Amino acid sequence: MLFTRSAIQIDTYVFDVLMRDILGHDKQPSALVVFLFLYAQAARQGWRPVRASLRHIADETGLSKSAVQSALVNLHRRELLATTMANPTASPFHRILRPWRRRWRRTRRR
User: Fold this and answer.
1) Tell me, what's the pLDDT at 6?
2) Architecture of domain 12-109 in CATH?
């Protein structure tokens, strides 16, 4: 994997609202770590879905596979992530969902 140091822009909603909800309400810091990892990967790829297995995410974040699996369940429940697989043994594609952007655009147009 080619590593380049480039800045990515993170929506303020992630730190102002989402961080407090995931850490304070859900008490699951691993979900925030996984979300930020996938968010950064997606941003670097032009918001295309990120292909990443549980093991890959665990290795890259330093979390256990079970912590990553639990985090993914939480992110799906919160509708922050959509995952698809070509077949049962393929590495999944994770698509970051940013529902706050849709709400912001709707209120801005009014």
Assistant:
1) 75
2) Orthogonal Bundle (1.10)
